[in-house]
Amino acid sequence: MFRGNGSGHDVRTALGNHRAEHRSPHRAAGDATPVGGTRSAGGRRKATRHKTQTNVFRKIPAVPSLIGAVAIIAAAGGAIGMGPGNLNGTGLQLSAGSDNFSGTDAFTFTGNDARSLAISRDSERQALKVATARSLQATVDEQSAERNSTLQSLAADAQKRADEIAKNLWVLPTVGYVLTARFGQSSGLWSHLHTGLDFAAPTGTPIFAIADGVITFTGYDGSYGNKTVETLPDGTQIWYAHQSEIDVTVGQHVIQSAQIGRIGSTGNTTGPHVHIEVRPGGGAPVDPYPEFLLHGVTP
């Protein structure tokens, strides 16, 4: 503390001398500018003193800068001194062992919360639906395959039967005819009941083989007149009687609808017609009408 005689001049002089003592030793020795400066004629110091004093205070850091530096140092020290996983004074924990995602990641984590459980149930239901749909489809495919196999078998059987029927289909023995006598009728014209169907048509009308077969007889046969016998594959005999013309020979294979002769009135007859008898296995005659129906044709 500097004491003076109470005058302002003494105080200023003392401060000037004090600053001069602490001036940097590196200051140039030839610096002629006095610390205290010089006085003017009016008794005041010149501006040189004020300039020097201002430069000295510029070397001292500003108060806000000092405060900021202190804050940075304090923060750094606090960060270094904190324990792992603890933000100083905040209560936040960074310990890897205490978080809720331990052993998980954002893509595979499935928790026990309601949303995760709902997603899991939805996934299970979806998987069950897919499995059920696949099972049903497999069952349908299996049943469809079995059905197709059965249908194919039935179709094959039907085709086989159709082929057999086609082979055994009959045709009518002539055209433009009129039925004049049926099986079982009686008349003075016959010594016993009528044994066939009579298809009356003009003389010379073609007579056709009613089915595939082999000619086993041709010639004149009493009351039957000119007669042709055709034997079918099952042994059934078809007799064609009263012909005016025979166009086949014994042993000849004929097909359905092939012409085998012509209508006439030979033998015991009252007019031109073809008498048709059906004899299964070469035995006694049966009614030709239902036999025609059975083989797909109506006389």
Plain-language structure description:
With 299 residues, this protein is of the alpha+beta class. It folds into three domains: 1-24 and 32-82, no CATH class; 110-168; 178-294, Glucose Permease (Domain IIA) (Distorted Sandwich), CATH 2.70.70. It contains five helices and nine strands; from the N terminus they run ααααβββββββββα. Strands 1, 2, 3, 4, 5, 6, 7, 8 and 9 form a nine-stranded antiparallel β-sheet that branches. A hairpin with a 5-residue loop joins β5 and β6.
Counting DSSP E segments of at least 2 residues, the number of strands comes to: 9
Mean pLDDT: 75
Q: Give me the number of helical elements.
A: 5
Radius of gyration: 69 Å
Question: Regions with pLDDT < 50 over 5+ consecutive residues?
Answer: 1-9, 24-38, 46-52, 79-87, 94-99, 101-109
> Biggest sheet, open or closed, and with what strands and sense?
9 strands, antiparallel
Share of helix, binned: 25-40%
* H-E string: HHHHEEEEEEEEEH
In CATH, the homologous superfamily of the largest domain goes by the name Glucose Permease (Domain IIA)
In one word, what is the shape? rod-shaped
Structural class, judged by helices and strands? alpha+beta
* Number of structurally distinct domains: 3
Q: Assign the CATH architecture of the largest domain.
A: Distorted Sandwich
Separation, N- and C-terminal Cα atoms: 161 Å
Fill in the CATH topology of the largest domain. Answer: Glucose Permease (Domain IIA)
**CATH top-level class of the largest domain:** Mainly Beta
**Strand-residue proportion:** 15-25%
